[in-house]
Fold this sequence. Notes:
Elements: E1 6-10, H1 14-23, E2 26-27, E3 31-33, E4 50-52, E5 56-63, E6 66-73, E7 82-86, E8 105-113, E9 118-126, E10 135-144, E11 151-160, E12 165-174, E13 193-201, E14 205-212, E15 218-230, E16 237-240, E17 243-246, E18 250-259, E19 265-275, H2 284-294, H3 298-316, E20 318-320, H4 322-338, H5 372-376, H6 380-392, H7 394-403, E21 426-429, E22 434-437, H8 445-461, H9 464-485, E23 487-489, E24 494-496, H10 522-541, H11 544-554, H12 558-569, E25 575-576, E26 579-580, H13 594-601, H14 607-613, H15 631-635, H16 638-647, H17 654-665, H18 673-685, H19 691-700, H20 717-731, E27 735-737, E28 740-743, E29 754-760, E30 763-771, E31 774-779, E32 787-791, E33 794-798, E34 802-807
The structure holds 5-hydroxymethyl-3,4-dihydroxypiperidine.
Amino acid sequence: MPEDWTWEYEGWHPAEERLRESLCTLGNGYFATRGAATEVFGGPAHYPGTYVAGCYNRLVSHVAGRRVENEDLVNLPNWLPLRYRVAETEDRPASAWLTPANRSLLGYRQTLDLRRGTLTRRLRFTDRHRADHPHLSVEQVRLVHMGSPHLAALRTTFTAEDWSGSLDLEAALDGRTTNAGVERYRQLNGHHLGRVRTGAEGPDILRLSCATRTSGVRIALAARTEAWQTAGDGETPVAVAPWARLGERTASHLLTVPIAPGQPVVVDKIVALHTSRDPAVSDPEEAALYEVSHAPAFAELLGSHEAAWERMWRRAELDVSGEPGRILRLHLFHVLQTLSPHTAGLDVGVPARGLHGEAYRGHVFWDELFVLQYLNLHFPEVSRALLDYRYRRLPRACRAARQADRAGAMYPWQSGSDGREEAQTLHLNPRSGRWLPDHSHLQHHVGSAIAYNIWRYGQATADTEFMYTRGAEMMLQIARFWASAAEYDPAMRRYRFRGVVGPDEYHDAYPGAPEPGVDDNAYTNVTAAWVLARALELAEVLPGPPRRELFERIGLAEDELAGWEDISRRVRVPFHAGVISQFEGYGELAELDWDGYRERYGDIRRLDRILEAEGDTTNRYQASKQADVLMLGYLFPPAELAAVFQRLGYAVDDALWRATVDYYLRRTSHGSTLSGLVHGWVLARARHADAWKYCLEALTSDVADLQGGTTAEGIHLGAMAGTLDLVQRGLTGLETRDDTLWLDPAPLPELSEFDLTLRYRGQWGIGLRMKPGQLLISVPVSNEAPVRFALGDRAWNVAPGSERVVALPTGE
Ligand code: IFM
């Protein structure tokens, strides 16, 4: 169905434009551009933004009497501007520039076509001052090339429906951009670009170059403008030459073109973007000019762009019927625009908000935990590159650990260009206007997320070249950090991790405590124990020479491993009232009047801001921002979770786990999009009646902007990718271990039919088709060997070119 691949936005609604811009962003893993209007060079309704993956700059600001330093993903010069108006005639001055906000606008429709990777904008104007009400229609197609990652293009076609005259056109490169896309950051310095230079080359090429102020990344754009109209015979295109106007920070092509019914005017803008961070580039300006002057015409570019997308869709395949399927495809589109095969050649991590806006400054958090699981089974080379981003920053993480009197690697909660801790030290509560201390750097569980990703990547790919070298080194250094952070409590005869912050950011200290952090966060402790156990397992299988070489290089002695073994079996997990405690003392905190707060405020997702504005704090209450203990049920399938607890000497049976799920379900405000996802996943696996409610929340968090306007500042990449994985692994129960694809379906009635194509250990096109009561497994004929599947106590080797239909227990 064609509509399954398109998202349509009708009319011009100033309050919604920025949200649409995020959702209509086009990108290719190297760079992305928000779906902003080309006619407006700014203003409150629009926020043009172009971001190159990994292009950061650091600036100092002064807020609340303090000096703060922030590193931001930089908003680069805007390549979009293209504006138009009806040119003056002998008896009439030129019209105003025509924009979607203009009163002469009759119609506005934006269509995001996921299959083709294009954004088409259709606008229709009239001149109300003229008695004959002439009409001008404009169709504009935009692409950010998926095959040639440094190219973008814009084709604009103007049709005079019932008048003749001329159009004035201006196509520009605009270097006046700043980072101003997030209201909360407005008091911070956003002027990242300097040394702007503009120029023109030959009759049809403009150039603009600049550099980030402190990181010194040089950026260059070049734009080729091609315009023509059809001649009087309606067929012969006649090229129209532009002339260049160069400003200090802008470069424009200007042209005036006659137009008449049956003689449309077409303007193509082909743009190239390079930075000095690019591989295989001598000078970015020279590279951009070279690229733009060798780029083919628009029609050919569109063809090769669509072909590149077709190849991507084939590898990414995940087909779900109905509206959930349409949303999932949009999520997949944005994941692939942020992290594509082009990413594999770059030194970049997973930006939590995509390349779609400036929230969280383009930083890299633990959110990659929700992203790599999907990529592992489609684009493993991209997963590997993202893990290599972490590997290159391992020395910095080791130094951070040493500075904190720990051993091993302490990865930062927020990472940017060089891997230092980028978490802010102050954050603004927009409700109270107060700047508050930020202790999120105590979320050391980010290290376990990296280790978890390495382990799962290894299971999905059997990539021993990575696992026995960089993967092992990171695993061992993260395990070493945990071993050095563990405090032995002789009274409890257990190891404890104290002074941390768990995934639930509402608890960063005990009420009234002078120091930040809480003790024995169950998620942190259990995942730390898991990391230690997996590191030992990996150390065990490392072949002799690489093992010796690695141990020697990182100074790891064999007897350290004995200590890890002990810790991995005796980490403490607190319990209260028959459930796992989120941390020591959680059960003693006050109960919140949830109904009262809901009644008073309606949306209480950001309860932390509400309470702080009232002079209170979430630290006093049994109130969690997002899934914390329940994250364990997201990371570990039931058997593995039970085994993890068993190894620690705790009996966590089904009843205790269910009681734990219910307990936190009643005490969570879901102030992060990750929360709905994790709850949906955990409840779906437990076949809980409320599962769909949370899955739906995760599915709609960006398209319906559920977190109160935050999608306009960038999409939530973790939740988007997580919903793909919810189908891929959550509903199928898919696990990749022991050379086997293990299945344990728990389909939701609302998501009971879907198709997946996986790439597993170098084998492409492995198919899983789920229907109510039935699962069809297929292995393409092109495969070299059979693939082993298991479900419960049944197992099959499915040969190349064959299928296996598996009946599922009733209700599945
Ligand atoms: O990593 C998340 C965190 O869990 C909740 N706050 C936002 C971060 C970035 O997405």
